[in-house]
Design a protein that fits this description.
The chain is an all-alpha fold. The protein is built from eleven helices and two strands, in the order ααααααββααααα. A hairpin with a 3-residue loop joins strand 1 and strand 2. The longest helix is centred in the N-terminal third of the chain and has 29 residues. The chain starts with a helix and ends in a 30-residue tail after the last helix. The N terminus and C terminus are likely disordered.
Length: about 270
């Protein structure tokens, strides 16, 4: 296993995040089911926002201004091609053989005909990107997401996705080299490239979200649910919503029957990017 020191550090950060979160659950009103560690998560979110404003956003803005669009597209394509290889593995682990083979063909096409992934001829051939990670694989085989968790520097996650991330990072582009300095450089490039691609989304978020923490949490959890179920999550039960509303005088109490969860499709394209 390459870069064991980096893996141990990441594991320690995540373990501390979980343990600290458990120790800082608010003692007043009962915590929400999806975010029982909100008090701790908001503190980590504020820390991440400060780091982003002071370091990541300025660097990403400079990268976008200085580096030509053609070069930035090539960088995104190469990093995406490496991620596609791991996505192909996760499609197969989930039993989606057809889409797994398609993703494998996408990687081969871009590697051999796209100059190592710099170009993206696979998309022109109809082999579109359908990203999958190990957190989605765990979810497909029945593991629930667990509580929402904001990781230091890494951002929104859940307990399940945090565990999956440990394995995902072993298939990242930085693992293609045994030289630590080069691996850290590739990781930094991944972060800066991703942040540069999200600059416009950040401006939109600042303009529409009153509480960015709550907005990001709901967006993340919704998109991950759709990703696990390939765009067709089970129908929600509205029984609690009906029960929580007082009945008007003379009205009969109404309850909505629980919806039967929809089975996972055998093979369908993932709808939401991570």
């Amino acid at each position: 296993m390459r870069h064991p020191g980096a893996l141990r550090t990441l594991s320690l950060v995540m373990l501390v995040a979980v343990l600290t979160g458990c120790a800082t659950v608010p003692g007043g009103a009962p915590p929400s089911k999806e975010d029982p560690w909100e008090n701790f998560n908001r503190k980590v979110y504020s820390f991440n926002e400060a780091v982003d404003e002071a370091v990541l956003k300025p660097v990403a803005t400079a990268y976008r201004k200085v580096v030509p669009q053609l070069v930035r597209t090539g960088v995104s394509n190469v990093l995406g091609n490496v991620g596609d290889a791991w996505s192909a593995v996760n499609h197969l682990l989930q039993g989606k053989v057809g889409s797994g083979l398609d993703m494998g063909m996408r990687v081969l096409s871009n590697t051999f005909f796209g100059l190592g992934g710099v170009l993206d001829p696979a998309t022109e051939m109809g082999l579109t990107r359908r990203s999958e990670d190990f957190g989605q694989t765990l979810g497909r085989w029945g593991m629930g997401p667990g509580p929402y968790l904001v990781l230091p520097l890494l951002g929104p996650s859940t307990v399940r996705d945090t565990g999956g991330l440990l394995l995902d990072r072993q298939a990242a582009a930085s693992t293609l080299t045994s030289r630590d300095a080069l691996a850290y450089g590739i990781t930094a490039l991944e972060v800066v490239n991703l942040r540069a691609n999200l600059l416009d989304a950040g401006k939109l978020l600042d303009s529409v979200a009153l509480d960015k923490y709550t907005f990001l949490r709901q967006v993340y959890l919704s998109r991950r649910l759709e990703a696990v179920y390939d765009g067709a999550p089970p129908m929600e039960t509205f029984e609690d919503e009906f029960d929580s509303e007082p009945a008007a005088a003379g009205d009969k109490p109404q309850t909505a029957p629980a919806a039967k969860p929809a089975p996972l499709p055998a093979s369908a394209p993932a709808s939401a990017p991570k």
